[in-house]
Amino acid sequence: MKKTLARWLDSDVGHSFRNSPVAMIAAVIAFLCLFCAVFAGWVTPHNPFDLATLELGDARLPPVWSAEGSTKYLLGTDDQGRDILSAVIYGARISLVVGIVSVVLSVLVGVMLGLLAGFWGGWLDAFLMRVCDVMLSFPPILIALLMAGVGRALFPDAPTSVAFGVLIVAISLTGWVQYARTVRGSTLVERSKEYVQAARVTGVSRWRIMMRHVLPNVMGPVMVLATIQVATAIITEATLSFLGVGVPPTSPSLGTLIRTGNDYLFSGEWWITVFPGAMLVLISLSVNLLGDWLRDALNPRLR
């Protein structure tokens, strides 16, 4: 493990990371958010979704630095007496899970279709690219909103896992197109190179060439795009949850918390919506900064 880390730090990408303060700060912030989200049960002082521990008498308390604040709730409470700090960490976990899983699904679908379109060409390439053109003609949030709304209407009493699955598929349905187009363009360049021609001459099958030789050489742009798309997927999930067609209210994400706090924003309880919004901005900004750094680090023209 230490040798692998040392080898990575000595590489071009590692050297670029060590010389980029913005990338290091963004990585630390993203790691802290991910760590707190994964180990929310041990990090948070309260379980905000345990109804037995909620106290309505503590509802809408301001943060601890306010005159009416309590040291028991550092960032205050919402309208149901839930600790805002704990709710934000649990909500970040749900948002990160939905965002990461939807991006992984989009990468799997988009990379495979892009490889097939770029390597095989012909009618398959034309058909897949026309499908991409049709998908790009609709706003992504509209497609996700439509599918999530239809899923909630068809399965109103569905369990939480089904609701999460519908939301992930709704986000992935619009996310795979960019990967497919990116991989197709890179594959068209790679398939005409000498190493691919040599593999064909030696009798290697098309599928083996595509998966073993072409795929590793087109994954650089995919890694950059996937890093940036994680933030986009999280924001899309927050938007859908804010509109009421995202995750179930029993397992609120950051978008649901922002929607709940929006009802009390003009009455003075600003902390109910500001802190979930700040966490959403922090996660999205750190991931976007990492994506920008990775794009520059993998670009040979900038070395």
From TrEMBL:
Which CDD domains did the record assign?
Answer: TM_PBP2 (cd06261)
| Domain ABC transmembrane type-1 span(s) in chain numbering | 92-291
Location, primary (coarse class): membrane
Task: List, alphabetically, the PROSITE patterns matched.
Answer: ABC_TM1
Which membrane topology describes this protein? Answer: Multi-pass membrane protein
Subcellular localization, as worded in the UniProt entry: Cell membrane
What are the record keywords, sorted?
Cell membrane, Membrane, Transmembrane, Transmembrane helix, Transport
Where are its TM segments located? 21-43, 94-122, 134-155, 161-179, 214-235, 270-294
Is-annotated flag, keyword Ribonucleoprotein? no
> Which family is this protein grouped under?
Belongs to the binding-protein-dependent transport system permease family.
- What name does the UniProt record give this protein? ABC transporter permease
